[in-house]
Amino acid sequence: MADKMSFTRVLIANRGEIARRIQRGCRALGVETVAVFSEADRDAPFVVEADHAVCIGGAAPADSYLNVDAILDAARVTGAGAVHPGYGFLSENAGFAAAVEGAGLVFIGPDADAIAMMGSKIEAKAAAEAAGVPVLPGYRGEDQSDARLLEEAQTLGTPFLVKASAGGGGRGMRLVTDLADAPEAITSARSEAKGAFGDAAVFLERYAPRARHVEVQVLGDSHGTVLHLGDRDCSLQRNHQKLIEEAPAADLPDALRDDMRAAAVRLAQSIGYRSAGTVEYLYDPARGEYYFLEMNTRLQVEHPVTEAITGIDLVEWQLRIARGEALSLAQSDVRFNGHAIEIRIAAENPAENFRPETGQITLWAPPAGVRLDSGVGAGSVVGHHYDSMLAKLIVHAPDRAGAIRQAVAAIDAFAVGGVGLNLSYQRALLTHADFEAFRHHTSGLPEMFPGGWTQPIPDARDTGLAAMALHLHLAPTGGSPWESLGSWRLTAAAGRPGAASYWTTSEDDPIRISGTPAELAALLPDGQSTTVESVTLTGDRLSGRIDGVPFSRIAHVERARDHWRVHLQTSAGICAVELRTLEDRHLVRAGAGGSGADLLTAPMPGAVAEVRVAPGDRVAVGDTLVVLEAMKLLQSLPAPVAGIVTEIYCAPGDTVAGHAPLVKLDPEEKT
Q1: Are the beta carbons of 122 and 140 closer than 8 angstroms?
Q2: DSSP strand E in 241-317: where?
Q3: CATH 3.30.700 domain extents, the chain
Q4: CATH for 592-667, among 3.40.50.300, 2.40.50.100, 3.10.290.10, 3.40.50.10490?
Q5: pLDDT tens by residue, 608-618
Q6: Can you give the pLDDT at residue 497?
Q7: Which residues form the Biotin carboxylation domain (predicted)?
Q8: Where in the chain is the domain with CATH 3.40.50.20?
Q9: Which CATH number fits the domain 137-206, given the four candidates 3.60.10.10, 2.60.120.260, 3.30.1490.20, 3.30.70.120?
Q10: How far apart, in Å, do the first and last CA atoms of the chain sit?
Q11: How confident is the model at residue 591 (pLDDT cuts 50, 70, 90)?
């Protein structure tokens, strides 16, 4: 092991939040870090924070984070002595582990043989059986013929799963509830497995319809010692992807919990496992039984909840074990304290079938006092090349109920702008009665939300407060809102308080804002009103008094394509309220051809930033003719019809009034 004591620089073959997490672990031991990054991640926090950084290719994972040769070249160039794979990408690739060792480097993880054995679900279950670990009834034979698989399916009976031997994350998996569907399920599972993993082998396994996902963290050194660090529950899943994890697993019989933990240690010892690993089980509460699923030969996404309840740094011990150190703990030294919950924060819209969200993060203000493992910050660009998970929020409390309360409070205080996240959905899961009462299971989301989950809708008061936040946001710095152009109407000089109108993107009737910041009122189309005294918008917080009671809420205002969006803190979590000003409504109408058949006019007062055409130019409907700077924004004004430019009435730098003529067209005749 002398050679494994020498490395002082670690290359991290990963990105995002896990790369930053490993960097923290390395810094704690005085080990330098090397970040490898794709062109898309050039300015990412994990790159900036590394001691050394090397670009290894284009944005596509195959060109960078899956490019073994480029990663090993980066290690050689930077003098790294070891490679940490993180999770995902190459972390459970036995060939990569062997290549790292073959290059004379230390692979921070188990040896390639253990990775290969546990990477095959068929071999892994055989090893589990040999170690006396319960497995689900099924067929895991070498005969992969249709006839044999269909014969075994008949014997097993429904419901059962067809699963890819080399699979993970739900890929290459099909549920069969009717034997008539078995041939198609086998064919499609094989095809997906071949495409995703390069291995078409499948196996059959009994399906437990209301099971929970429970896993045990193990830690083994190179001297034969294996410890368990307790268990976790990861039963809240969508398409076999975990959403929320907690430690310890709640509502388990003590004897069964002890047996699960002992079985995990037994399996790890039987294969000579070293480093951090996770033995995953399916727990069937109806039968009071558990079954081996798989062993993950890497650091898990959910490792922070184990760290929270044990106080043991898993990344630090991965590094120590890779250097040949023996575990300094005995099993009796591992103590469990309280309850921890982790929430995966992803750039996606759960209300629209979890549609991925991309763009630039304009605000990133996480709550204080809780752990956040994050791969992004304000200004980060979220692209489409990688997994949508951006961060993990981890809370720790004396008991489960307290951890749930902390998690909800943390979500409610998380201010984000620019890119939509799944925080409201995660809040709905945490506060659901099924989760609180342990009725949740791995396929239970349709039961929790029978009609599908919908985004919380702000009530009348919240909508009024959002309009007030926009109202104050658009006020000129150091001046009165009533002294500016745009939606603001200068009526105070006439002895009347100012008034302005805003529209939600789904309503034709306006929200009326009247008064002054000393006492501002919002009147909604349905007649409901809210009055706020001493109202201010400072940074991203709206404060004031309602009925004499002070309040302070997150209220982040940002510009969307053709409207404003206010991220407002409400009793249902952060809600996004989309609003338009009078000028926005004019712009929308102009975009729909509202300027007339032959004349483009200014939808609002502003300054001409660009004129993109000249007399005689031929234009198509929608071509940008003029760019107008108004309300601190550049607005592209499109051609209302196709035709020839005949007259231009403005030049860059001109200030124009609302409805002023800008460009005249000679429309093309329709045939």
Answers
A1: yes
A2: 241-247, 275-284, 289-296
A3: 460-580
A4: 2.40.50.100
A5: 889 999 999 99
A6: 52
A7: 6-450
A8: 2-108
A9: 3.30.1490.20
A10: 84
A11: low
320-357 pLDDT, tens digit each: 999 999 999 999 999 999 999 999 999 999 998 888 88
Picking from 37-41, 72-76, 574-578, 584-588, which range would have the lowest pLDDT averaged per residue?
584-588
211-227 tens-digit pLDDT? 999 999 999 999 999 99
Q: What is the pLDDT of residue 249?
A: 97
> pTM of this prediction?
0.81
Distance between CA atoms of residues 504 and 430, nearest Å? 30
pLDDT value of residue 444:
93
Query: What is the pLDDT at residue 494?
Result: 39
Q: Is the pLDDT of residue 485 over 60?
A: no
Residues of each domain in the chain carrying CATH 2.40.50.100:
592-667
The class of domain 2-108 in CATH terms is: alpha beta
Q: Using only the alpha carbons of the chain, give its radius of gyration.
A: 30
* Mean pLDDT over the full length of the chain: 91
The backbone torsions φ and ψ at residue 498, rounded to the nearest 5 degrees and listed phi first, read -70, 160
3-state helix, strand, coil in the chain (%, to 5): 30, 35, 40
Rounded distance, CA 475 to CA 478, Å?
8
Q: Tokens for 395, please give them.
A: 């809370």
C-alpha 461: how far from its chain's center?
30
Judged by DSSP in three states, 263 sits in helix
Q: Assign 40 a pLDDT band (cuts: 50, 70, 90).
A: very high
The single-letter code of the amino acid at 190 is R
Q: Residue 398 is encoded by which pair of tokens?
A: 């004396």
Strand, coil or helix: what is 251?
Answer: coil
Confidence of residue 493 (pLDDT cuts 50, 70, 90): very low
Q: Where do the CATH 3.30.470.20 domains begin and end in the chain?
A: 111-135+213-337, 341-455
Q: Give 460-580's CATH code, choosing from 3.30.700, 1.10.357, 3.40.190, 3.60.21.
A: 3.30.700
Count Cβ atoms below 10 Å from residue 671 Cβ, excluding itself.
3
Look up residue 422 and give its two tokens.
């799944």
**41 DSSP 8-state letter:** G
Distance (Å, rounded) from C-alpha 320 to C-alpha 315? 9
423-427: long-range pairs with CB below 8 Å, 24+:
423/343, 423/345, 423/573, 423/574, 424/350, 424/455, 424/456, 424/572, 424/573, 424/574, 424/575, 425/350, 425/351, 425/453, 426/243, 426/244, 426/343, 426/344, 426/345, 427/572, 427/573
Q: What is the DSSP letter of 71?
A: H
For 28, the 3-state DSSP assignment is: helix
Two structure tokens written together for 514: 């009247």
Cα dist from 579 to 501, 552, 575, 584, whole Å: 10, 21, 13, 9
CA distance 386 to 60: 8
Q: How do 82-84 and 106-107 pair as beta strands?
A: parallel
Tokens 């009024």 sit on residue: 464
Topology given in CATH for the domain delimited by 111-135+213-337? D-amino Acid Aminotransferase; Chain A, domain 1 (3.30.470)
* Integer Cα distance of 380 and 573 in angstroms: 23
> Has domain 341-455 been given CATH number 3.30.470.20?
yes
